[in-house]
Each structure stands twice: as structure tokens, then as C-alpha cells.
Amino acid sequence: MLNIKNLCLSYGEISALDNISFLINNGEIYTMLGPSGCGKTSMLNILAGNVTHHTGKVTLNGNTIDHKKMSVGFITQDYGLLPWRTVYNNVVLPLNIKRLNVKDYADKIDYLFEKLGITELKNHYPLSLSGGQKQRVAIAAAFVMNLDLLLMDEPFSALDQMTREATQELFFRIWEETHPTTILVTHSIKEAVFLGQKIIVLTRAPGRVVGILDNPVFGLPDDYAQTEVSDITRKIKQILKSGLDA
């Protein structure tokens, strides 16, 4: 269980997060919506260990998140690929960092490359790839280890609509196989509804939780259960508006 309790963050006199609290059970995926500047990315950076000057408590399965002992994946909007490493070497980088034997993961690496359709790109460099290809490489790099926690910061926002939807579906199929505990930040209500078992809505800065919605249409295509999709979309818009007015 990921337990975030009374989390606050300030940058000097500017408050970014104000008393954030919520729980995510193991194996669940939550999406997070909120206005620009409300602290969504800052929260992910706290969980990733990149920001430490916060107050409040963050634990995973009762323990402080220790990146030396836990596997935490972070997929960012800019893909996070190193331009001087080939696709293959970018994918195995998390194993290198953890000093794990790449040979022990050979079958999983081959499976991810095949599943994500990037086998023929193994020896290419990121600069020669399209946005959709880069994102699939980033997904492979995130899932190469058994993850304790997966963080995603607007991972599909730089893609055109058709590529974005195709990559979302690929990600979802990979995610379903292992169910890592996941937080996905997005500005897209449609994306939040497709990929979030629950949807967290934040107010404008300083970010506070203004609503957490159960999602009855999680993982379903948007042409299925249209009434339910419309209902939860309307609720999200209403909560977002209330967060702007707060």
C-alpha cells in the first residue's frame, strides 16, 4: 500500500502542495488531474526521491521509500532516454543501475521488445525514433524489472491523438500483466478515465485533494458504456471547476 499522509511542499514562500493525503492499494493504478502548477509533478518527484524538502509522511507497504531496496519506475513526458545509448542499452539501464545481471532478464527483455513492437529498433539511437517509438522504449525500460511503484508524468501528452491512443492501449496491456502500483498524472480527462481505477482531482496551487472518484469504466474503450463514461466525465469536470474556485 502506498500511503501519502499530510504531504506539504513549499519552494521558498510559494506553497506547491497543501496537506495531501490518500492511499493506493498494491496493484492499483490511480490517475491524477488538476490545473497546471498545482503540484502534480512535484508530488511524483517526491515519490521518486528527487525532492526531499517536504513535510508529511510517504510510505510503501509501511516503509519509507528506499530507492536502493525498492524498484521505482518513472516515465516522463520527454521519455527520459539517454541519446548516447542505443534502444537496447536504454531499456537495460535500470538493471545496470541496480547492478543486476542483464542475462537473468533476457527472456523478459525479449518479451517486452516483441510485445511493444520495438525489436527491430534495438540498435537504434533515440534521435532516430518517432515520439511513439520513444514512448514504447520508455515503457519497456520501466517494466524491465518487477516494479514496486510506477510513476508517470503526462507520459503520452507529446504524441498525436492516434499514436497516443495506440500507446495507451499498449501500456495498459503491459500493465495488466504485472499490476505495479501506479500513479499517472495527466491533463486529459479521457486518459484519466481510461487508465485510472480511481481518479484523484487536485485544486489549483497549492494543490489539495478536492475529490477521489471510483471509476466504473476503467480500462474500457470510450465507445463502451457511453452513459457511464459521460457521467464520470461530467463529475470530473464539476470537481475540477470546484477546485479552480477553491
Can you tell me about this structure?
With 246 residues, this protein is of the alpha/beta class. The chain folds into 2 domains: 1-71 and 150-246, P-loop containing nucleotide triphosphate hydrolases (Rossmann fold), CATH 3.40.50.300; 73-145, no CATH class. The protein is 35% helix and 24% strand. The strands form 2 sheets. A 6-stranded mixed beta sheet has the order 6-7-8-3-9-10, with helices on both faces. The two termini are 30 Å apart.
State the total count of DSSP E strands. 10
The number of helices is 8
**Protein structure class:** alpha/beta
Q: Strand order across the biggest sheet?
A: 6-7-8-3-9-10
Classified in CATH, the superfamily of the largest domain is P-loop containing nucleotide triphosphate hydrolases
Rg, alpha carbons: 18 Å
Report the CATH architecture of the largest domain. Answer: 3-Layer(aba) Sandwich
- Give the rounded overall mean pLDDT: 90
What number of structural domains do the residues give? 2
State the name of the first-level CATH class of the largest domain.
Alpha Beta
Largest beta-sheet characterization: 6 strands, mixed
State the order of secondary-structure elements, H for helix, E for strand: EEEHEEEHHHHEHEHEEH
What's the N-to-C terminus distance? 30 Å
The proportion of strand residues reads 15-25%
CATH topology of the largest domain: Rossmann fold
Q: What level of helicity do the residues show? A: 25-40%
Shape by Cα distribution: globular
Low-confidence stretches: none
